[in-house]
Amino acid sequence: MRTNDEEYARPATPPDTSRWSQLREAARDCTACHLYKSATQTVFGEGPKRVSIMLVGEQPGDYEDLAGKPFVGPAGKILDRALAEAGINRDEVYVTNAVKHFKWEPRGERRIRQKPSAREIAACRPWLEAELRLVKPKLLVCLGSTAGQTIFVRHSVSRASAAKFCPQSWRQKWLRRFILQHCCVNRMKCRVTANTRVSLSIFGSL
């Protein structure tokens, strides 16, 4: 029997459904890893269904954990400006995270983000697979190494080798092209802006 502070992780088991309401409800009650114990709630992806572009970040932060929505904190504001500068309407983009619960440690009265472990990332990967299956984006943009690790299961993957390491279920037309970018909050604006501009030109060639 697990104790309340025991760390564990096992692959999540999303329902085999095409209904977003069922998927979100199941994710809300996910206990596939121990991160749910210290998080306020599951932060699932958000945006129109069947969109052309899907953005994947690492995990929700403090603001997202409290609001229950992805990219609404400081990083989200930077991302909004970057998308606007790149000519992309956020309302036409699906945004989500590789890990759905906020991993943090206390530091005084603040909750400081901690990088998810490989086991925690793997436990949450089935939720992202389910989102990809329903959204079916033509372009997938990975915002950071954790998102890239989730998609390609490696820390560094070239475009030529993406098909080799990408899970078989994800080897579809919309994964022929991708952008893998390492970024952090204080450097995200210029990097995300550059990448989203490139994304537009790549998307136009698909």
- Distance between termini? 51 Å
Tell me roughly what share of residues is in helical segments: 25-40%
Class of secondary structure makeup: alpha/beta
Q: Uncertain spans, ≥5 residues at pLDDT below 50?
A: 154-206
**Range of strand content:** 5-15%
Q: Which CATH class applies here? A: Alpha Beta
- Main sheet strand line-up: 2-1-5-6
Mean of the pLDDT scores? 78
Evaluate the radius of gyration.
16 Å
Q: What sequence of helices (H) and strands (E) makes up the elements?
A: HEHHEEEHEHHEH
Mind describing the biggest β-sheet? 4 strands, parallel
Structure description:
With 206 residues, this protein is an alpha/beta fold. The protein has a single domain, classed as Uracil-DNA Glycosylase, subunit E (3-Layer(aba) Sandwich), CATH 3.40.470. The chain is built from seven helices and six strands; from the N terminus they run αβααβββαβααβα. The chain has helices spanning 20-28, 62-67, 74-85, 118-135, 145-152, 162-165, 188-205; strands spanning 53-57, 93-97, 104-107, 110-113, 139-143, 178-181. The chain has a four-stranded parallel sheet with strand order 2-1-5-6, sandwiched between helices. A hairpin with a 2-residue loop joins β3 (104-107) and β4. α3 (74-85) crosses α7 (188-205). The longest helix has 18 residues, at 118-135. The radius of gyration is 16 Å and the shape is globular. Mean pLDDT is 78; it is low at 154-206.
